[in-house]
Amino acid sequence: MPPAVYILGLSVFALGTSEFMLSGLLPPIADDMNVSIPQAGLLISAFAIGMVVGAPLLAVATLRLPRRTTLIALISVFGLGQIAGALAPTYEVLFASRVVSALACAGFWAVGAAVAIAMVPVNQRARAMAVMIGGLSIANVLGVPLGAFLGEHFGWRSAFWAVGAASAVALIGVVTRIPYIPLPEKKPELRRELAIYRDRQVWLAIVITALAAGGVFCAFSYLAPLLTDVAGLDSGWVPWILGLFGIGALVGTTIGGRVADAHLFGVLLSGITASTVFLAALALFASSQVAVVALAFLLGLSAFFTAPALNARMFNVAGAAPTLAGATTTAAFNLGNTSGPWLGGTVIDADFGFAATAWAGAAMTVMALAAVAVSLRLQRGGGGGGPSRSRLIAKSAAAGTGSAGAAVGTGSAAGAERAVPGPGATGPVTSADCVASPGA
Prior knowledge:
The chain is mainly α. It has 18 helices and no strands.
């Protein structure tokens, strides 16, 4: 795996810490800004919505810009957003800084994913994405608890300063380690990139990702009150159990990234099925302290075991538009991260209790499994009569520039033709490489 991919993972650590750390900082922010807890909670919603909207918009806006330059600009804006948040004199300024940070975060995810895919062989896509997602897992294990610790002992603004410092380190890594990737001789066309949305497999991938992520986070978002009010654990246990979820996520990402390239649909089916079983078990045994602690770890493992396959699937079916593929995946995950907690809150407001959020999450993952089954059936049937529109565009674009016109498989990536330089390749990535590879 090229070192640059790990730099992208380091960057995602900073991004993920900023995205999730507010869950442990809402009370001091509310006190300092003289707003209610629900108003402070809108800062979390603002970031998630900014991710959903910003990923495709920034992907389109930066379509013809050099990717290394784009990454440098986005991580710089993100870091400045953290500084603005740390210095914010009012709630309105802090809210604006979160929106700007979310837009930059979304753009970096989208472009960074495309760059990671471009630097590895086709049969290592899931592993490359696992490295990036691993940065998010470590953010949940270390970054978020550390942010809560800093907020408790040094004030909530210190957590923003810490993420700003991590962003500066990431910026240095991007400047020094990300290779120059020139634009192809035939510049990307927006109409050609947008054509991927005519492929039903792309929409199925969006639905699967949003439902799989939303199902887990429907319950996870309310895990803290479930632990204290239903299982009867002391509140001091909550950070440790949330960290246990993060450890499960890190383990799941590592395993899923190594398996998904060869068994993509197998990982999707087994991982989402496991999440469904664990969610149902959480609903049934919510009053058992031992059960909820074990299930917190297992849910993190199953959710992030599936994540590399979800990312790789999108790049497989949307190979003609890798930047939009990354943006679409980012938006889909955040649709799940927004809709899942909303559904959980609706269930709680209806007086079904905290344990019912796990049943609601299980219902979402069951729908995700149904969508996987439909996608697999279309895959085996040739996608309804031949290659998808997006893959035809990818092949014609490659042929038009004199490249090898590598074919892209939409199932297991293990048998796909290698169209980009491998980890041992030397020299810069060339324009021809970028055109030939569906992930360039």
